[in-house]
Every structure is written in structure tokens, then in C-alpha cells.
Write a structure and sequence with these properties.
Strand content: 25-35%
CATH architecture: Sandwich
Strand order of the largest sheet: 1-3-2-4-7
Number of helices: 2
Radius of gyration: 19 Å
Largest sheet: 5 strands, antiparallel
Number of domains: 1
Helix content: 10-25%
Order of helices and strands: HEEHEEEEEE
Number of strands: 8
Structural class: alpha+beta
CATH topology: Gamma-B Crystallin, domain 1
Shape: globular
Distance between the termini: 49 Å
CATH class: Mainly Beta
Length: 130
Amino acid sequence: MRSAVSTTLAAAFLVTTAATAHAAPQTVQTFTGQGLDACPYGYLCLYENVNFNADAPGLILKTNEDIRDLATYGFDDKTSSVYNNTPWHWGFFYDKNYSKSMGGLDPIKTVNYNHRDEDNKMSSLISNSP
């Protein structure tokens, strides 16, 4: 009897754990794409090339959470354009852990770092979302 209860409880735990893990949304993702349409509403998107990878598909990082170190996602010092498709202001930093501000971007705005000092120098980012 004890074995059957233990087995049932273990199975219920695994199902619950799997369902919880599966239900959690992925908030940071890197993929290949181009253009503003590649960035869904509610996300900040970093593009590896200027003009939102307009010339050819390139690497994009989309997020709706703060990132202390873009190197975690292979995107440290790789940002050439940004689309803020969120209702929040985002702050960008030259160094990881939100150090050495390089400015920010208001909601539903874009920026190209083409021929600017900030090109390929972003290492962390943070939003003012609740």
C-alpha cells in the first residue's frame, strides 16, 4: 500500500512539475530574422546589424526581462539596432550588471547605432516595467 501511494505521489509530482515548467513563457530568445515585424509586441529586440538586419537576415535577441549580462545569450557587444516594442522605457549599459549607462529607449521607439559610439557595445539592459 505504501509503495502504491509513493508511486502515485511521485507521478503526480512529475506531472505537476512538467506542466509548470512547460507553462512558463520563454522571455529571452535569440533567432535569425530581419525587420521590425520580427519583434512581437511586448518585447525589446536587439538586432546584430543596422537598420534591423534590413540587408539580410541576422541574429535577433528578443526579451521582456532585464538582462544583467548579454554574454549569457551570446549577444554581448553585438547590438547595432534596437526596437522597443513594449510599453516601458529601457536603459542600456556598456558593461554587465547595469554599469556605465549608454542611454535608453522610450516605448514603441527604435534606434540605429550605425556610425555611433554605441554600436556593438551594449552589455546589459533593464526596463522600468512593474
